[in-house]
Structures are given as structure tokens and as C-alpha cells.
Amino acid sequence: MPKHLYYILLICCFCACSRPHKGTEKPIVHYQTDSLQYAQHFSIQHTDNHSLLILYNPWQKGEILGKYYLTRHDSIQTPTDGIQLTIPLQTVCLQSAPHIGFIDALSQTECVVGTTSPELFYSPKLQQQYRTGHTHHLGDAYQMHLEKIVQLSPNALFITAYPQTDGQTNRLYQLHIPIIPTVEWTEPHLLGRAEWIKVYGLLFDQKELADSLFNATAQQYNRLAELAKKATHQPTIMSGLPFKDTWYMPGGKSFMGQLFEHANLSYHYSDNEQFGSLPLSFETVWFYFQQAEIWVGIDADSYQQLAQMDARLVQFAAAKSRQMYHYRKRLTPTGGNDFWESAVVYPDRLLHDLMCIAHPTILPNQDTYYIERLP
In what order do the strands lie in the sheet with 156-160? Predict the structure, then answer.
């Protein structure tokens, strides 16, 4: 055989051996992606026999916090680069209050078999389940009873994710229980936070209900925001109380900062670009807010209690005119506050409340949901 033909044959044999045999190629999965209106930190995709949920790290662009392949039958094969979950979830454990807000809205509270500090939750259904022993106490949010979680063996454990993980979080991931880290609180838009109901809707197989609830919330929120623009007066507003000599005010891009803007209120830090809180001294707050007309987010029960906390506090104009409000209207005797639960799901109620106290002529004779004037 001519030498050049020998080399050609050798190359052809190598290529044939290198080519995957028929039937061994990985099938290409074609996903259809759900469109999201406001949320930025998760995505939902669907194929013929499963869905794909991806949770993104808001502190590290492009990094994935969790990847979940959701099927209705555990016999279905999915890619191995994520966690496979069978939906709907039947039993779950929770670390914090916002989780129950979403689950309550979807009428899936019965699935909650364990939560931290259940006495501090507002949800009447969850409180009833705790009293009857259906929902178990998992300790404190920062010191969870790991043995109890293992004993309950839930289909998933919802936790609130933060920029740095601690020892407890690392131990939770070692329990071999599916962990779902949620970061709805980092969404830059209030309706982005509310849109996380679609994550819960997917996991509990309540997609249509979740979509319907969110669409109604977004429509009402945007309607109220347009209505607020008609106000001829922009009342000035301040928020919060000092804590250990530091007064934390909402950043301009925080969810409360956005709420002030959408309610057509004048807030000194509205142009600030911070998504979190601004640590301020008492003197700074006094300088910029001493004449503010409305004061919200006061962690006190009455004017008298406020005066006892610090006599300087009742010298603000809003205190003198008694335009002081807290978010304690929906409170249980043990301290559960619905503001921390359902307000994440229904920001339109919060916007409605602010408009009721700031623009009463636009929304006349309407009662507030979360906000209440200090007596």
C-alpha cells in the first residue's frame, strides 16, 4: 500500500473512533423561558417533562445560588448539574417570615411542618398548626435545631440568603435536605420582590394562581402610583428611630425609598443610590427632618412611650402634630407582625396605606391595612 494512503486510512480510523457512537450523544434540551416583569434574581424555564428554576446571586453577577430541576414524577431523568425536586412540594421548613407570606397567599400553609420561632409569625393558619403540633418549632433563625430538621425530613428547607454564609448555613447544606436560598429582599423594585411568588407557585405547582395574584398586585400598585401623581402637595416624610446612637434611614433605592417616591412624597434622600439603609447620627436627622410632616416606621406603641425613649424625639414637627405612624396594625399578642409577612407579597397595600395618610383627598374614607397612627 502506498505510504500516503496508509496515513489517510489511519486518520479516517482515528476520526471514526473519536466520533460518538449513535445513541450516546447527549440530547439537546430546548427550554421555553417565562418572561418576568420586575424580578432579576431568578429565572424559570420549561421543557416537555420538567421545569428549571435558577436562583441567582445578587452580590456576584453571573453566579448561581441554586439550580433545581422540577418534575411531577421522580422517575423522570433530568440533568445532573442541579437538584431534582418532585412537585408539588408536600412538606417544607422555613427560616423566616417572608416565606410564609408567599406560601399563605397560595393556600399551601399546611405543607409547613417546621419553622423558626413560630410564635413570632402572624399567619393565623400557621399559628393554628403550631398549637396543634402540625408545625414544629425549629429554634431561633440563627440557631436552628438541625436534628429536628433531619427528623422531619422535609422536601425542602427555605432559608434567607445573605452575602456571607455563616457556620449554620454551611451545616444546613450538609444535611442532605434540598435547600432553597431566597433573596427576594434584594430585588431593586418592590414588585420584583412580590414577583417571587412565581418561585413558590412553581415549587407548589400553583403556577396559574401565582401568576394571577402577581398580575393583580402589579396592576393595582401601578394604578395607585399613577393616582398619586395627581396630588398637588408632596408632604415631607421621615422614617424609623435611632438604635444605639445610629438612626437608620431608607436609602433612596431601597424598597421604602421607592415606596415614598411612588406615593408622591418628598424624601430628603430620594436621590440617594443606596439599596439598603443609611446610618445617620441624630444630629443629621434633626438637621434634615425636623420639619418633616409625616413620620412612619416608629417602633413604639404610643406618643408617651416615644417621649420616654428620648425626649428629643417629640420635638420633631411630625411628633408635635401627631402625624406619627407605626406598622403594627396587624400584630399578634406574641409579637407576630403581618407587615413582615404579607406586605412583601402585596406592596400595593403598603402604597395604599401611605396614600391614605399622605393624600386623604385622593383616597377619601379608606382605612389602612398595615399602618396605624400612634395614640
Answer: 136-137, 112-115, 92-94, 156-160, 179-182
Same domain, 260 and 176: no
Pair (211, 240) in one structural domain: no
Buried b (16+ CB within 10 A) or exposed e, 53-67: bebbbbeeeeeebbe
Residues contacting residue 352 through CB under 8 Å, at least 6 positions apart = 224, 363, 366, 368, 369
Query: 273 and 209: one domain?
Result: no
Greatest CA separation for the chain: 106
Domain range spanning residue 126? 32-218
Beta-carbon neighbour count of residue 101 at 10 Å? 26
Residues 6+ apart with CB under 8 A from 27: none
Does the pLDDT at position 26 exceed 80? Answer: no
Give the DSSP per-residue string, 151-176: HH--SEEEEE--SS--HHHHHHTTSS
What single letter denotes the amino acid at residue 301? D
- How would DSSP label each residue in 92-106? EEESSHHHHHHHHHT
- Per the structure, the count of domains in the chain is 2
**Inter-residue contact 142 to 159 (CB < 8 Å):** no
**Tens-place pLDDT, residues 132-148:** 999 999 999 989 999 99
CA angle 112, 218, 361 (to 5 degrees): 115
Contacts of 101 (CB under 8 A, 6+ apart): 123, 340, 341, 342, 343, 344, 345
Whether residue 2 lies inside any domain: the answer is no
Residues present in the chain in total: 375
For residues 39 and 126, membership in a common domain is answered with: yes
Element (H, E) at 347: helix 347-358
Q: 165 or 63, which is more confident?
A: 63
Q: Give per-residue pLDDT as tens, 50-64.
A: 999 999 999 999 899
Nearest alpha-carbon partner for 325 in 371, 284, 288: 371
For residue 3, tell me if it sits in a domain: no
| Nearest-10 crossing angle of helices 124-132, 97-105 | 100
> What confidence tier does 17 reach under pLDDT thresholds 50, 70, 90?
very low
| Separation of alpha carbons 262 and 292, rounded Å | 18
Q: What are the φ/ψ torsions at residue 229 (nearest 5 degrees)?
A: -65, -20
